[in-house]
Amino acid sequence: MDTTLIDAYRATEYRVRLLQGGWASIHVDAALPEPLQTLTGGRSWAFITAWNPHSQPQPRSQNHVAQHALLAALRTLPGTLYIRPGLGSGDNWREPSFFVIGPDLTEIDQLAQQFRQHAYVHGLGEGAARLRLTSDREPHGQAG
Asked: Which helix (H) or strand (E) holds 6?
């Protein structure tokens, strides 16, 4: 994966729809926003999508099917406690996503690979959001 793509992931605004309305924005390497800290209760969380596998644009209908399959898969994970809709957005694009609380990195890694995603954002409680690369090729794991 080239550094341009990693830079784009780092610059993305990862927005989570709040129950009371409005949005909370997650940024890589920044602390989780207060409304989401309260929601996580110190547990692990991830922000993931099934849209545009391998960062290649797909037809909207195909992305919707994949996103519904991801939601179904998240619901079956034994550690899943909570799922909220999200939206990843960059300069000229947007991808519906999910903010999920509970699953561990191994479970999310497997889903990211299953849905052919290069990366996702994750964290633990109020700690900083981290970009995690899921490719089988280097670099893998946390993006430095």
From this structure: helix 3-11
The end-to-end CA distance of the chain, in Å, is 13
What are 74-82's contacts with CB under 8 Å, separation 24+? Answer: 74/48, 74/98, 74/100, 74/103, 74/111, 77/102, 77/103, 77/107, 79/44, 79/103, 79/104, 79/107, 81/43, 82/39
Asked if residue 33 has pLDDT above 90, the reply is yes
Omega before 103 within 30 of 0, i.e. cis: no
Query: What confidence score (pLDDT) does residue 67 get?
Result: 98
- The reported pTM is 0.91
Residue 54, by phi and psi: left (phi above 0), alpha (psi -120 to 50) or beta?
Answer: left
| The Cα angle at residue 7 between residues 23 and 107, in degrees rounded to 5 | 65
Per-residue pLDDT tens digits for 9-23: 999 999 999 988 999
